[in-house]
Write a structure and sequence with these properties.
This protein has two domains: 320 residues, TIM Barrel; 76 residues, no CATH class. Helix content is 53%, strand content 11%. Helix 1 packs antiparallel against helix 3, helix 10 packs parallel to helix 11 and helix 12 packs antiparallel against helix 13. The longest helix has 18 residues.
Amino acid sequence: MDRERRNEVSRRDFLWRTTSGAAVLGVGALAAQAWAEQAAPAGDAAQSTARKPILPHGKLGRTGYPVTLVSFGGILLKGSVGTRVLQLAIDRGINLVHTSASYGGGASVAAFGELFKAAPAYREKVFLCLKSLRPEKESEIDDMLRALGVENADAVLTELHSPDPKRVDAIRRQQDALKKKGKVRHTGFVCHGDMNDVLELVLDQHKDYFDVALLAMKLVPNPANRDKAAADEAGQRFLANLKALRKAGVGILSMKSGAKEAVKKGAAVYGPHIKAYLEAGADSMLTSMDTLDQVDMVTRLELRNPHLTPDERRAAAEFHDSQAGTCRMCAACKKACPQGLPVNDLMRFRMYDVDYGLHEHARTEYESLGVDFRQAASRCGDCTACASVCPVNLAGPTTVRDTAIALG
């Protein structure tokens, strides 16, 4: 049996298993049948799908890829149910997906791998992004590719959370080597740390190198108050940096905007929310989904006109205000700390734990940082340096201590 025949048999087997599991997931028989029928075989049809997305799309910077305005974040995926959610998202037209070995202790990559191994056509239908934590370890990417059952990724997005020139040099060495070996097509970085300073370093020295940036978008000002008189200085800097990155040809993927919570609230909230962040400068809104209903809602949105109506702007502004107490990832707290503690990272881990409910992921991230915040908090005394600069009144010695206790 040749490879093409084996792939087709495994694909049919996978779809049979998927359709059989539809009742367990609460999907009707007709919906399950349509779901299975939408899968395209490998070859020209899959390539055509990538060239002409069925969902509203733009262009991902200099990659030229016609990325759908909604893309798929895999942090919540696990098990065969997660695999079926991913398959439905791709069948419904979402054409950029993202995962990392750090998500669910490898559960997310395993869920992706179940689909790509059983039905290789799905790999050809998406722009695959992998998050890298350690640019000095090429084995990190090799292990993910092996678990996914694929030969390469379209972009590796390596963590760059502070404006450290040495870190950028390490990332460039990593990604040059990966490209030379055919393991990745495009360069990229991910940032949810010192947002403006990182972006300004990239713009100043590396804007022609990076193809894709996955950025935390919490600094985007309220969509009802984006004029310079009303918005804060950090938010205006961020908008200007996004505009400059796009002008330089860097594709922008949005994350940590509150999309996960907006999805839970339904189309009336998520629709205006995504339009607001596309308006701010994102090419695609990376959205974490873990149910079939969420995929169904997101992929049925009317986004062909991405401009906010007055009612949508009000809805987006109200949701933005509801998220006002969450970390903006500006790193002001880290810069102010006399101990030099990465308080901003701790606040992000708190967000995973308290706001997202990703308790194990929060603990894993906390442990990997290698900082004893409990001991550090004991030295805070009456210092309120981080609290005095936090724009959302989140950081402070009490929050540092309580979060360290919860995650330590």
